[in-house]
Design goal:
Length: 194
């Protein structure tokens, strides 16, 4: 049994829907692998490997998330951003097993287009984003040279993830706790999802 098999077997919500989504995705050229503590579907090998999609289960829906979603043509107009801060990822959303069954051809078409994007070497080109650093993070970086050095070594995407996470807290105390919680990961050069 693979990690992915164990993962799917341990799910408690959207069980049948995710199994069907998995079967649909695996019927394409996408290969199932393990990233970010979940199954991930990729195309290619080694340096040519590229992320195609993931399968998610939320409280009120399940979804197929596409890493290069903004590049998909989306002729049906059904792709949505997974969250308010999503810039590249888009997802197909389903509320029942019947919806997944009815959309099998559509899902396959979107997965195949996502695979073609990887084959063609297409990447999402994002404009640099001006991040609004919360004052607690500015103070922490200014007051801790070790943290500042580690922060500057992080990739822009990792920095963005931390800034968004810390800024989303409404209270200053919560922002300070988040900075302290993530300090060890930042010092190790890790992002929030590493």
């Amino acid at each position: 049994m693979t990690k992915a098999d164990e993962w799917y077997a341990s799910r408690e919500i959207w069980v049948e829907e995710r199994r069907l989504l998995r079967r649909i995705v695996r019927a394409t050229e996408a290969r199932e692998t393990w990233k970010w503590n979940q199954p991930c579907y990729v195309w290619g090998e080694g340096a040519a490997e590229g992320n195609v999609c993931v399968i998610w289960g939320y409280k009120d829906h399940c979804a197929v998330g596409f890493h290069r979603g903004v590049l998909l043509s989306d002729p049906e107009g059904v792709l949505v951003a997974p969250g308010k801060h999503s810039r590249a990822m888009r997802k197909l959303v389903f509320g029942s097993l019947e919806e997944v069954e009815a959309a099998e051809g559509l899902i396959t078409a979107y997965v195949e287009e996502a695979i073609q994007l990887v084959k063609d070497g297409r990447e999402v080109e994002l404009e640099p984003e001006e991040l609004d650093y919360p004052e607690e993070l500015v103070a922490a970086l200014e007051g801790d040279p070790e943290l500042q050095e580690a922060w500057e070594a992080l990739t822009p995407g990792r920095q963005r993830g931390y800034v968004i996470h810390i800024s989303d807290a409404k209270r200053a105390e919560t922002r300070e706790r988040r900075i302290e919680k993530w300090r060890p990961a930042i010092l190790q050069g890790k992002g929030m999802h590493d």
